[in-house]
């Protein structure tokens, strides 16, 4: 019973789920759903996920959407997933829940707002909106500040003072990576003040390579395509 | 080592945590943090939760914030919490995670700013923002539709076709109870079309009785005050074409 992952690698939470599967040797099939061609809005995909969003998974007759729920399901259901991804210890696990919840209303909204209102606007046939981009930058900065000062310890590479990555590191870093679409200059400007954040992104990348780089190739390719 | 729950009952997620504790007989101490007085912004409270938000808990040396994380922790860490609140079964549990996640970006993202920017803001000394309210209303309406057509699909009394409540029912229904402070015509317009949603609110209230009503008293008092103020404003404007609740002549 192979796990089916409905995916478009342009989507940050999709990348987190696929990297997780690759790193943990999970047997899965990636079913491409092209966001730019609005394939997520078809009646066929609505059968998989009535919210018409990615990622979604099907495992036998079990369907699930929302990337945090998916990552927890996979970590809990597949053998061989190391404990550090989603610890059994109720205290560590609760802290992971709290950063994943915080993420929804804080960090996630930053990169999405910036990218959908600038470089991705033509892809989704919406207008450029510099005001929204500015707002997105404010949200991102506030969230990165909190990540730098609270979620990341001085001497530990991952969130919550951990020495090994959890599903929270994967989710948050994949979201921040979306900023690569707006170019290196903006990436350096937006992330420049946050040294721990930059180090943490690198730590997460190293802990999950070569899959991290492989999955993020799509951003480089899209950026080049849009610039030409 | 009693559990400490830092709460303001005007906050929807605070109510969910408190009701959960009461229903499950969890021994806790409620420490009131008044948002209207800015007590959540003090350096003392920042020691408890650096995000300066409610609810937050302290269980011995263990501190936690974000209401969904708190509800899951309480369900797992305290004995005697019935399985239906946060089932051990990985499939049921995953579905509960998915609706709790959906809630952040949908129901909460619509309901909270809508109520704030049409009604609550002045209580906290902030201006109303009709544009934010209009955008939030779109998200709220769409979320209510999704609740009616998808999350409450089938014959179950609660979310996900279930016949007993989970932490997701408590979280989402407490969010919707904030709509009580709205002008009745707005509340009717928003909730009226959704019969299953209305029934589900009632089911959740009954399943957590009498604690649900007790914990929601502060919101119902706020509702009365709002109605009183609207009546006063209507009288002052001489607004004869404004709807007024029937007043007994007895």
UniProtKB/TrEMBL annotation, chain A:
Residues 89-226 form the GST C-terminal domain. Gene3D superfamilies: 1.20.1050.10, Glutaredoxin. Keywords: Detoxification, Transferase. PROSITE patterns: GST_CTER, GST_NTER. One of its GO terms (molecular function) is glutathione transferase activity. The keyword Lipid biosynthesis does not apply. Residues 1-82 form the GST N-terminal domain. It catalyses: RX + glutathione = an S-substituted glutathione + a halide anion + H(+). It comes from the Eukaryota. Its EC number is 2.5.1.18. InterPro entries: Glutathione-S-Trfase_C-like, Glutathione-S-Trfase_C_sf, Glutathione_S-Trfase, Glutathione_S-Trfase_N, GST_N_Theta, GSTT1/2/3, Thioredoxin-like_sf. GO terms for biological process: toxin catabolic process. Belongs to the GST superfamily. Theta family. This is glutathione transferase. It comes from Gossypium tomentosum (Hawaiian cotton).
UniProtKB/TrEMBL annotation, chain B:
It catalyses: RX + glutathione = an S-substituted glutathione + a halide anion + H(+). GO terms for biological process: toxin catabolic process. InterPro entries: Glutathione-S-Trfase_C-like, Glutathione-S-Trfase_C_sf, Glutathione_S-Trfase, Glutathione_S-Trfase_N, GST_N_Theta, GSTT1/2/3, Thioredoxin-like_sf. SUPFAM superfamilies: GST C-terminal domain-like, Thioredoxin-like. The keyword Transferase applies. It is an enzyme of class 2 (transferase). Residues 231-250 are annotated as: Disordered. Residues 1-82 form the GST N-terminal domain. Its EC number is 2.5.1.18. Keywords: Detoxification, Transferase. CDD domains: GST_N_Theta. Residues 89-229 form the GST C-terminal domain. The keyword Transferase applies. One of its GO terms (molecular function) is glutathione transferase activity. Belongs to the GST superfamily. Theta family. PANTHER family: GLUTATHIONE S-TRANSFERASE T1-RELATED. This is glutathione transferase.
